[in-house]
Design brief:
The protein is mostly helical. The protein has a single domain, classed as Orthogonal Bundle (SMc04008-like fold), CATH 1.10.3340.10. It contains 6 helices and no strands. Helix 2 runs parallel beside helix 6 and helix 3 packs across helix 4. The protein is globular. The termini are far apart. The model has no long low-confidence stretch (mean pLDDT 93). This is Alkaline phosphatase.
């Protein structure tokens, strides 16, 4: 029989799942953001923006750079230099198809 979660238990489990997702994305530097956007409709930048929005909703002073560093595990510029490749024509075309209102 399933245990009825308390609010604190649910929040604890959600936080643990979020930390695991972030850790997984930090380790999978081979997966490009554009591929994530094309396949699942969000990427590391989206996740860092959601993190920043949650901070602002709670009046927590956090910069965009700090929220990105939390998700990327390093400053965003450093991650881009180390791991981001130029999008291929196929990736850009797939993005246009999967996100027709984004450009």
């Amino acid at each position: 029989m399933d245990h009825e979660l308390t609010e604190d238990e649910q929040r604890t489990l959600e936080a643990a799942a979020f930390r695991r997702l972030v850790s997984h994305l930090q380790q999978r530097t081979d997966v490009q953001n554009i591929d994530m956007m094309n396949l699942v409709g969000f990427c590391r930048n989206c996740l860092s923006n959601w993190y920043l929005e949650a901070a602002k909703e709670r009046d927590i002073d956090l910069s965009k750079e700090a929220s990105r560093e939390r998700v990327y595990g390093m400053p965003y510029a450093e991650w881009k230099a180390k791991h981001q490749s130029e999008a291929t024509a196929e990736q850009r075309e797939a993005f246009k198809t999967s996100h027709p209102h984004s450009h």
